[in-house]
Amino acid sequence: MKRLGFLSIALLAAAPLVAPQAAQPLRPFEMADMHQLQDLSGPSFSPDGERIAYTVSGHNLDSDASVSDLWRASWSGGEPVQLTNTQFDSEWAPAYSPDGKWLAFLGDGSEDGSAQIFVMPAAGGEPRQVSSLPAGVTDFVWAPDSRRFALIAEDAPPPVRKDSRGEDKPVPPLVIDRFQFVEDYRDYLTNRYQRLWTLSLDGEQLTQLTRAPMDVWLPSWSPDGASVAYVTRTGPDPDRHLNYDVYTVTPEAGAEPKRISSFAGTDVDPYWESRPVWSPDGKQLAWLQSGEDKWIYYAPWQLVVADLEKGTERKLAHIDRSFYKPRWSPDGKSIYALVEQNLNTWLARIDVASEKIDYLSQGQRFGYDYALAPNGRLAELVSTDTRPFFIESVEAKPRTLADHNSFLSQVQLQASEELRFDSEGHSIEALLVKPVGYQPGKKYPTIVRVHGGPVYQFSHEFMYDWQLYAAAGYAVLAVNPRGSSGRGFDFARAIYASWGEADVKDVLAGVDHLVDLGIADKQRLGLGGWSYGGILTNFLIGSDTRFKAAISGAGVANVLGSYGHDQYSREYELELGTPWENFDNYARVSYPFLHADRITTPTLYQCAEKDRNVPCLGAEQMYQALRSLKVDSQLVIYPGQNHGLNVPSYLADRMQRNLDWYGQYLLKKRG
Q: CB atoms < 10 A from the CB of 72, how many?
């Protein structure tokens, strides 16, 4: 220590003799940076609260695949430690055993490439495969005794038939009699269901707990290990409704499940990634609850607590906002949860007795997940305008515990500014990203981004595409129109069964506002979005001709043609009714296709070949319509991809095509 101190003094003494170096100028965000970005997810505390395991995902350009490894950060600080390093395989969803001896996770390094449970010593070491389910494992949780798991796995597929040469024969015909017959990432839904199982730590004892013809999700062990809670839909035809319920079952073969929730609506939609959670004493269960079936995803998700002895339920701290990922405090007096606010998502602590909400994080940030230790320590997974996801301690003076994107400190990144404006008497909000090198008084080509959902919102989170647009000289306007989340039930349901009406008006009002501010060049306006963002893009170019270029990704415009083709027939019927009884409803939301002759905007259509969420049919129909009308258009299909692209070269291709398409119509041609 003395030697280090002496060296420091010597260097300080010599400092005046050395010419000061000028700070290196920041460079613009580039396409190559997109491949360098590391995405963090799934933080999980060790039982002693000293370590946090998490997943780091990035691009392997050699195999052209997105891959992930496990890392570990220390609560006390220091550099994170890499736990797995598999170049072509992935590991994710780490979870420490309650006794602190093991770290379990999902990985695709099995012989057949399916996702299975692996375990390694908690301190690190060689993993071993525990599960060998034929169709893989989609979710798992440790039992309190650290000797077994509860897991979710789909029924085994039919065996592959071989001919006399040992070559595979054609697969048998698919026979379907379910109402919902297709789902993104699962493809066609036959009589194979997701079941609840238990599996011993040595992988030898596998027990099936659910057998009824219905899918189950989100298992959760009781503290005494005597029961497992899970989520399912029941009834004569579960696919027809959204009445998800919470059940419990004794972890023994043949045990009879018990329904806990009583609401005739949605209790814990699996989409929310928020499993039911037991109080520390095992006497209460907490979960998230939405609205009646007909409101689908429009109603905010509220906290519900059930007293298991009394058989009663009560909503907790109703604030007309959505809660995410509830977890009980170690003393059982509070429940932690992420709470979506306007433009932000914060971590909160809710007092169970008084229902008082204390926000533990605030400001411009998007909290997506968090880890809670038995000793009460908290770590939040969070993103901001200029920082991809990182892990931060939740304390009086928060500390960064893990950040794998330090290279961005050398990059010029643009923060988002909040805008507010009026649309038909409603206060609408938007985020504005100004171009790199912005000069007040100068008008800029502007790209208007519209979000997916439809019930979702743009918030203060890192968006690499916005940074690339800003680096290319564009202003980026991201409007949260009526129909967006973060502002309560009434604001969200303003577009219920009437897509492309109020939200179109709000987006156009935002464009007018940015033009009035003297920032957007009204002669150089671009537009684009993915999923519902693609749908709304179709509505906007069908309603207004001001946009000089548009990009509609994974969208639809002919809902009459989508019914019975995508995974949403149930939701269509709940919101619009059936096409043969409610033709006017379907015609109204199919406006862009039925009135395609009003479109003059050159439009690039993009879709993913295996997308069952919003299939290519929607993009194909609109592309065909515009080609018929001789409007400049192009169709790009990404092979083998589902709704979310994950092949690095495809992600780069989409981004470059977007830049080229906008550049062709919004920027001055260069010699």
A: 20
pLDDT tens track for 287-296:
999 999 999 9
Q: So what's the pLDDT on residue 668?
A: 65
Beta strands in 366-461 (DSSP E): 366-372, 378-384, 387-393, 400-402, 411-412, 417-423, 426-433, 444-449
Residue 638: what pLDDT?
Answer: 98
Taken as a whole, the chain contains a residue count of: 671
Residue-level pLDDT at 580: 97
| pLDDT value for 24 | 78
Q: Is the four-CA dihedral 169, 175, 178, 180 of positive or negative sign?
A: positive
Q: What is the pLDDT of residues 369-392, one digit of tens each?
A: 999 999 999 999 999 999 999 999
Q: Helix, strand, or coil here: 410?
A: helix
Quick one: tokens of 137?
């494992």
Domains of the chain and CATH, by start: 414-666 (3.40.50.1820)
| Residue 178, helix vs strand vs coil | coil
Q: What is the pLDDT of residue 10?
A: 29
Sign of CA dihedral 516, 522, 524, 526: positive
Q: What is the spatial order of strands in the sheet that 312-316 belongs to?
A: 277-278, 284-289, 302-307, 312-316
Structure tokens at 258: 């018990």
> Which H or E run includes 187?
strand 187-188
Q: What is the 3-state secondary structure (H, E, C) of 116-177?
A: EEEEEECCCCCCEECCCCCCCCCEEEECCCCCEEEEEEECCCCCCCECCCCCECCCCCCCCC
Angle between helices 616-628 and 532-543 (to 10 degrees): 20
The encoded tokens of residue 269 equal 């939609």
> Per residue in 448-494, pLDDT tens?
999 999 999 999 999 999 999 999 999 999 999 999 999 999 999 99
Contacts of 267 (CB under 8 A, 6+ apart): 231, 243, 244, 245, 246, 261, 287, 288, 289, 290, 304
Helix/strand/coil (H, E, C) string of 432-456? EECCCCCCCCCCEEEEEECCCCCCC
Distance of CA 368 to CAs 73, 161, 667, Å?
18, 44, 36
| Number of Cβ within a 10 Å radius of residue 33 | 20
| Single-letter code of the amino acid located at 392 | E
| Dihedral sign computed on CA atoms, order 222, 228, 233, 234 | negative
Locate 438 and state its tokens.
Answer: 């912005």
Backbone angles phi, psi at 167, to 5 degrees: -85, 150
Taking the C-alpha atoms of residue 205 and residue 148, their distance in angstroms, rounded to an integer, is 9
Q: Please give the torsion angle defined by the CA atoms of residues 287, 292, 297 and 301, in that order, rounded to the nearest 10 degrees.
A: -30
* Ranges under pLDDT 50 in the chain: 1-20, 669-671
Helix (H, G, I), strand (E, B) or coil at 647: coil
- Secondary structure, 3-state, 85-127: CCCCCCEEEEEECCCCCEEEEEECCCCCCCCEEEEEECCCCCC
The DSSP symbol for 412 reads: E
Looking at the chain, the number of H-run helices and the number of E-run strands are 12, 40
Residue 329 has, within 13 A of its CA and on its CB side, a CA count of 12
